Amino acid sequence: MTQDEPKVTFNRVMLKISGEALMGDLGYGLHPPTVERIAREVQSVHELGVEICMVIGGGNIFRGLQGSAQGMERTTADYMGMLATVMNALAMQSALEGLGIHTRVISAITMNEVAEPYIRRRAVRHLEKKRVCIFAAGTGNPYFTTDTAATLRANEMSCEAIFKGTKVDGVYDKDPNKFDDAVRYTTVSYDDVLAKRLGVMDASAIALARDNNLPIIVFSLDEPGGFRGILAGQGTYTRVQG
């Protein structure tokens, strides 16, 4: 690390982003310039020597809950949603490797031709070799969200925090896009997130983070340099902790 580089507060982190984050201004699918912009954010943190895990949702392609609501059998709809996350993971892998970052897509559903199967010790070794690990296909089980998958993998990989990239710069007491008097929390407890239904992550993900004392840092993915800045102790964000 050079003298100009900031001192980072974490050595290994989980970055969780929604599939919608990859859409850019499109209403559906992937927007390659947006994927590349997020990849550059990851690159800026990777250059600090931080080991990075990623989980990307699939909502820009298919949402299991929406499919289920439209009459599709829930288990089938959820598996389709898992496959959507694999597509997003491959897109992000392509963007990261275009920047010269060694990346592995690790899938909870076996598909050897495009991704490695999830083997915990192998994944840890990739991280130790400074490869970015993108965990795809959720937990491999229906009825669990990618938020829960991110929290599960973060615990298994011994991550020190989950970084939840959203469209707003933290957690508010009400929707800041609808209410001008919405107040942003600097820190908020896991129990308050659950009791007040603040919508950081789904309840099972919050409970899993709480039970393992894993902090969740909610920040804006749209703010250039935000991911790197927060790792250096700067920027605007909300920290969810015990």
TrEMBL record:
Its biological purpose: Catalyzes the reversible phosphorylation of UMP to UDP.
Subcellular locations according to the entry: Cytoplasm
Regulation of its function: Allosterically activated by GTP. Inhibited by UTP.
Subunit structure: Homohexamer.
Primary localization: cytoplasm
Residues annotated as domain Aspartate/glutamate/uridylate kinase: 12-220
Keywords recorded for this protein, A-Z: Allosteric enzyme, ATP-binding, Cytoplasm, Kinase, Nucleotide-binding, Pyrimidine biosynthesis, Transferase
Residues bound to UMP: G58, D78, T139, G140, N141, P142, Y143, F144, T145, T146
E.C. designation(s): 2.7.4.22
Cross-referenced PANTHER family: URIDYLATE KINASE, URIDYLATE KINASE PUMPKIN, CHLOROPLASTIC
NCBIfam families attached to this UniProt entry: pyrH_bact (TIGR02075)
InterPro entries reported in the protein's UniProt record: AceGlu_kinase-like_sf, Asp/Glu/Uridylate_kinase, Uridylate_kinase, Uridylate_kinase_bac
Protein's recorded name: Uridylate kinase
Top-level taxon in the UniProt lineage: Bacteria
GO molecular function: ATP binding; UMP kinase activity
Catalytic EC class: transferase
Binding site for ATP: K16, I17, S18, G19, G59, R63, T166, Y172, D175
Organism the protein comes from: Sulfitobacter sabulilitoris
Chain spans, region Involved in allosteric activation by GTP: 24-29
BP GO terms, sorted: 'de novo' CTP biosynthetic process; UDP biosynthetic process
Gene that specifies this protein: pyrH
Pathway it works in: Pyrimidine metabolism; CTP biosynthesis via de novo pathway; UDP from UMP (UMPK route): step 1/1
